[in-house]
Amino acid sequence: MLSAQAFDIFRTPRMDESIEKVEWRSYYPYVKSFRNNDTIEITINQSDVFEAMYDGLLLISGKVKKNGGGTVSFVNNAGAFMFSAISYEVNVKEIESVRDPGLVSTVRGYMCYTEEDSKHLVVAGWNYPNAPLLDSRVVTCGKQTIRLTRSNNDNNCLLVTEKTTGYTTTTTTASIYIENVELKIKRIYPNNDIRLKLLKAIRADTPIVIPYRQWELHMKPSLPQGSTHDVWPIKTTSVVESPRYVIVCFQTDKQDKLTADPTYFDNVNITNIRLTLNGESFPNERMRLNFEKSDYAEAHYRYLYRILP
Question: Where is the Double jelly roll-like domain (predicted)?
Fold first, then answer.
């Protein structure tokens, strides 16, 4: 639409010169031991520079060793399944700690990505350049530590398809040997005006508020056999954080098995599910779902619009 601005032919062009330059910096763990159950710690100890952690990349290089005649492939989001726990600290304060990051990030990805996204992001480690849920895109400074704990085996990362010849089926084993882990971070250099303002605020001990989401994983080993109703009490306490989203999924006999894919979940023909939080139920009315008859429009609507009550 045309406006008076179209006739402002004498205005001075504006150029964004707030950032002088951007560099990629690589950080490595002090102890290069990447075997199962090992802890990998990468520390950034730079107090006078600004790092764009939201654009960070974790590069893992290694090889797969196979014994047997079957075929071996990576499962979706395999990189996250290589670790049993991941934590992030800023100035010796833990911001987030995730147990079973492969399972957590896979479920989160299913909530955000389409089927097409999940396929073409396989080679990108499920890292979406323009994420549907954008994180806080603010630079950080000070001592930062990323701690990764290797899983006790690599069965959740790999999928083995056995070959059958006549009456004989091959037995194949496979494992991952990590040779190097590298953290690449963008280092951003602001212009002198912005740098002076930031340093002045830092010297004045101005609080820096960083918004973030923290994920908790709770697992129920089994459901009661022969029962169509179950109540699962979960205790979660926190001083500041409160639950924002609750995702429930079902899976049977797929963990720690080379011949099963842990990124696949089961349809158990749920007819109703309800969350009770501090005496209030979500949703407030009972859902009448029937997946066998494709009657799940209400649940799909709530998923699309993230409607809880």
Answer: 74-127, 137-300
